[in-house]
Design a protein that fits this description.
Blueprint lengths: L4 E6 L6 E6 L2 E7 L6 H15 L9 E5 L5 H18 L2 E5 L1 H10 L7 E7 L4 E10 L2 E12 H8 L6 E4 L7 H6 L3 E2 L9 H13 L18 H18 L9
Parallel strand pairs: 1-4, 4-5, 6-9, 9-10
Antiparallel strand pairs: 1-2, 2-3, 6-7, 7-8
Length: about 250
């Protein structure tokens, strides 16, 4: 760890980024050009950043990626690149949950509350959320990551007397309810997960020996991708049609 280099990838949202750190210190962070172009822009951005530091990919020790929840395509791209770098260059992989990445950024915001609610828009008037408490050793998860409706989430976080703050784009649909619950809403510039925060969190995980085994270099999906849900619905409908037919082909 004394002279380790770490490459951090964040492609879970519309605005991706890449960061490079050494010995636990952030050296560079670069935002990917455009939106929703993470697959096309990620590898050229990595190559450019390494070239600026006169590094080869084999000079790196770790690659960390923001694993979701988030854009299904985006997190798959980051997981695939991390897996490739592990296979080709022998890098150690650190999978960082995106909600934890958001909370890591919030913990560095001025005057943030002791407890942090990280929220991402899950559509359908629901949010992906997790809650964390700040301590001297980092962030401790106090509410497990999951898909919540607002009433259930509010009930879960209102059972304590601690001050809360909220971060993430899940706030947009529920801003009035968040404010009404007495939860501090952090500025919108804190709502986007960043590769710098992936690196910050990954260093803590690496120091604790939390290296991701090869079988776990995969995205974190709280809810299956929509294409998989549609496939399952069609498969179940086909099974029901077959079950309702007689062996001779007629309806029962």
């Amino acid at each position: 760890m004394s002279d380790a280099w770490l490459l951090a990838l964040e492609t879970s949202g519309s605005a991706g980024s890449v960061a490079l750190a050494r010995r636990g210190q952030l050296l560079a962070e670069q935002r990917l050009p455009g939106e929703r172009r993470n697959a096309a822009e990620l590898l050229p951005c990595i190559a450019e950043m390494l070239a600026k530091e006169r590094l080869h990919v084999r000079d790196l020790t770790f690659v960390a990626f923001s694993a979701g929840p988030g854009s299904f395509t985006g997190v798959r791209v980051a997981a695939t690149v991390a897996r490739m770098l592990s296979s080709v260059a022998g890098l150690k992989v650190i999978r960082t949950p995106t909600l934890h990445v958001l909370a890591q950024g919030a913990s560095l915001a001025p005057n943030s509350a002791n407890r942090i609610l990280a929220m991402l828009d899950a559509k359908r008037s629901r949010v992906y959320a997790a809650a964390f408490e700040q301590s001297g050793t980092g962030l401790c998860e106090v509410l497990a990551a999951g898909e919540y409706d607002w009433d259930a989430l509010c009930q879960a976080v209102s059972t304590t007397d601690c001050a809360w703050c909220a971060v993430g784009d899940g706030i947009r649909r529920h801003r009035d309810q968040v404010a009404a619950a007495g939860i501090q809403i952090l500025p919108e510039e804190c709502w986007r997960p960043r590769a710098a925060m992936v690196a910050e969190l990954a260093w803590r995980m690496a120091a604790a020996g939390r290296i991701t085994p090869p079988a776990e270099i995969v995205p974190i999906y709280i809810r299956p991708p929509e294409c998989e849900q549609v496939y399952e619905q069609r498969r179940e409908a086909a099974k029901a049609r077959r079950a309702g037919a007689t062996p001779g082909g007629g309806a029962t």
